[in-house]
Design brief:
Layout (H helix, E strand, L loop, with lengths): L4 E4 L1 E4 L2 E9 L16 H28 L3 H14 L2 H14 L3 H17 L4 H4 L2 H16 L13 E5 L4 H5 L6 E6 L7 H9 L3 E3 L13 E5 L4 E4 L3 H21 L16 E6 L5 H6 L5 E5 L13 H15 L3 E5 L26 H7 L1 H14 L4 E6 L5 H20 L8 E6 L2 H5 L1 H5 L4 E4 L1 H9 L17 H17 L2 E4 L10 H7 L3 E4 L4 H9 L2
Parallel strand pairs: 3-4, 4-5, 5-6, 9-10, 9-16, 10-11, 11-12, 12-13, 13-14, 14-15, 15-16
Antiparallel strand pairs: 1-8, 2-6, 3-7, 7-8
């Protein structure tokens, strides 16, 4: 290669690894004829339906195998994919293209899948934007089924290697021989993309989002991966190899030590109790979070219930999802965040004009208050589920006291209606996400209205520093430890302390070992993070 190549990206799964490079560049499905004769249209539609069912059955079988093996988080990915494969709206659009445009089913499903994926990519929530991979994966599998091909080729990996790829989808990794994978390095992806989730679940070091420079490493013989630092070195020199070997041994020792912290209560040396909780995106992730040592759920995103469907979720459907998490966690607290979908994504039956800047658009509490029927359906479901566990509710994107008072009025009216109808409701503490500078500045007033604050550091940082968190050029500016951000957190904690309420944090900073001491020093007593980060956070806390 003519020297080492240093690749900087996102630290997706911690640990270090060194091994032979394996470049994965799969060929996509080849749909064949773009157009089909009119007399073959109905048979093409029937072929598409059979392909969908075959893919669904395969995905559900994979999910069942993973769940039986104790891999609940990975199983949930494939269960969600099976549901997506059978999505009636996606099927209707594909069949429409086949019937009206004479397009082959394989070509149509790839086109419709890409339209769905682009809609996810445009979303302002990183977790939801990462679901574009799901859509592309499922549509590619259906297309491959139609043309008699395969959408995966990694199962034949012959020796332990570091995988280099533009991107890796769940179907790519499902049949991977785990003992042969030393690490992942991908050009695309984020901490919430499925390659990152699965790498963390497998305990495999991974660096994602290194960009087009990955191609410079395709001719490498050996690749060293630092999944904790977020970089990789292709064809490292002897000194770098020695350093990685030392760090690999240290990482192995540390991983063994962290096992001791999974199920302990986190306390500082001074005796301050810090609750360490999990961020969840769906009920399927709950048991996995408990296994990592979660002491509660600090952020339960409810958006998963509303996405990519023909109609809004009913009260019963929402109630069942919230109740499931509440029962899994028992007496442990579960904080449900009400709907927060950016203005760039359609909701069924909701007229939402396109917005140039959905980060600053019609989302969170402002949308909920404008759509009282939507809001009250969710509040009723939460109130009912609260009878089965320790649920709390939290309102996002708050900028003033009036919004909180209006939301509380809706909540109390829902409670009155339910109780008058003989429906059991549970107690429900109310909280505010402090993720706008306005909420932080007005925290003293807001604290008199609620029982807790949860600082959403991701948005608070980008709004305070005017730095888009998804803009790679601004990565150097996007800092949780910026003095302005710390000052807003300090002010929020001080206001909460004076009002006698507690403060949590649920952004990426909450699980960052370097930020945890700052947050605790400022007065945060609950930290919520991705489940695999929990043992290390507890260890950091115990040493403060």
């Amino acid at each position: 290669m003519g020297g080492s190549v240093h690749l900087s990206g996102v630290a997706a799964s911690e640990g270090v690894a060194v091994g032979p490079a394996y470049v994965y560049a799969p060929r996509g499905p080849e749909p064949g004829a773009e157009r089909i004769p009119e007399e073959a249209v109905e048979e093409e539609v029937s072929r598409f339906r059979r392909a969908v069912e075959a893919v669904r059955e395969r995905l559900l079988k994979t999910a069942a195998g993973l769940r039986e093996a104790g891999s609940g988080e990975e199983a949930a990915i494939f269960e969600a994919h099976a549901e997506l494969a059978g999505d009636p709206e996606l099927a209707a659009e594909v069949e429409q293209r086949v019937r009206e445009e004479g397009e082959s089913a394989a070509s149509a499903v790839l086109a419709v899948g890409e339209e769905y994926a682009e809609a996810f990519v445009a979303m302002d929530d990183e977790y939801m934007a990462a679901r574009a991979d799901d859509v592309r994966d499922v549509s590619a599998q259906i297309a491959a089924e139609l043309v008699g091909g395969s959408s995966s080729g990694l199962e034949g990996l012959e020796r332990p290697s570091v995988i280099l790829a533009r991107n890796l989808l769940p179907s790519d990794t499902a049949r991977l021989p785990r003992e042969k994978v030393l690490g992942f390095v991908t050009a695309e992806g984020s901490r919430t993309s499925h390659v990152a989730i699965m790498a963390r679940s497998f305990g495999i070091p991974a660096v994602v989002g290194v960009g087009d420079r990955l191609e410079e490493a395709f001719g490498a013989s050996v690749v060293a991966v630092d999944g904790t630092g977020g970089y990789a070195v292709a064809d490292p020199d002897p000194e770098t190899l020695e350093e990685f070997e030392r760090r690999r041994k240290r990482a192995a020792s540390e991983a063994a030590l962290l096992e001791e912290y999974r199920h302990v209560e986190a306390r500082t040396r001074g005796g301050i109790r810090i609750e360490v909780s999990a961020n969840l995106g769906s009920p399927e992730e709950a048991e996995e979070a408990l296994a990592w040592g979660a002491e509660g759920v600090g952020l339960f995103r409810t958006e998963f219930l509303f996405m990519e469907r023909e109609e809004l979720p009913s009260e019963e459907e929402q109630y069942a999802a919230y109740r499931r998490v509440a029962e899994i966690f028992g007496e442990r607290p579960v904080i449900v965040r009400t709907l927060d979908v950016g203005g760039d994504k359609d909701l069924p039956g909701i007229d939402r004009p396109a917005e140039e800047n959905p980060f600053l658009g019609w989302r969170g509490i402002r949308m909920s208050l404008d759509l009282p029927d939507l809001f009250r359906t969710q509040l009723r479901a939460v109130l009912r589920a609260a009878a089965h566990g320790n649920l709390k509710v939290m309102f996002p994107m708050v900028t003033g006291v009036e919004e909180i008072r209006a939301a509380k009025a809706h909540l109390e009216e829902c409670r009155r209606e339910l109780e008058e109808g003989g429906t059991l409701c549970g107690p429900l503490e109310i909280g505010v996400m402090v993720e706008t500078p306005a909420a932080a500045i007005l925290s003293a007033e807001l604290a008199r209205e609620v029982s807790f604050f949860s600082i959403g550091t991701n948005d608070l940082i980008q709004y305070t520093l005017a730095a888009d968190r998804g803009n790679e050029r601004l990565r150097r500016l996007y800092r949780a430890d910026h003095p302005a951000v710390l000052e807003l957190i300090r002010h929020t904690c001080e206001a909460a302390r004076e009002a006698g309420i507690w403060v949590g944090a649920c952004g990426e900073a909450a699980g960052d070992p370097d930020m945890i001491p700052h947050l605790i020093r400022l007065g945060v007593t609950e930290l919520s993070m991705s489940p695999p980060s929990i043992p290390r956070a507890k260890r950091v806390i115990s040493r403060l």
